[in-house]
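Handoff note, outgoing to incoming analyst
You'll be picking up this chain. Sequence as last confirmed:
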Amino acid sequence: MRIRQRLIAFGAALVAAAALVVAPAAPANAATSTPVIFVHGFIGNSSNWTTALSVFRAGGFTRLYTYDYNWAGSNQISAAGLRDKVNQVKAQTGASKVAIVNHSMGGLVTRWYLEEMGGAANVSHVASIAGANHGTTYAGACLINVSCIEMYPGSLFLLDLADGDETPGTARYRTWYSACDGIIIPYTSTRLDGATNTSVLCETHLGFLTNTSVLTQIRGFIAA
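Most recent structure output, in case you need it:
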């Protein structure tokens, strides 16, 4: 009888211990259920996010989406497409908000959506990787495209954005940029007022897309 009682007590202790181990996992699951939309940059497409998608899946994220748009066209039109994509993902998942991860010119597409189209109410996190958030003089090499005209410093597009809050709404904002970027000139153009701006030691513009250290930081930022 005593042996049986001890076994029962031991089993109860194991259940209690297991509960202590399992309980903390709930918040992590809730965090990783956030839908994440990845927005590429100039001359980009969804394939740019292959490494990022793998990193996020490894961290438990399952609701991952990419947004393709006409990178040669106006960033305003691309922003309208992003609005539609966000609404589609919200309807599909039932989520009240999504997270956005952008690269390069995708930063301008995202900014216009958030600041000029009221999109901030639908977004919980914004991660901008080497974003052309205040333009780049490098765009002078492709002014045949409307998108590059808008991306060139001093454009009417950028002046319109300059009138508003760079980090609107209650979303959390963070940027990653590097002095070795080579495409975003000046490289500090990525930084946003009100965001956590993270300087990365000597990373190239395209190198960010396969930098698993940075991508893991972004994953943690959205899961936090």
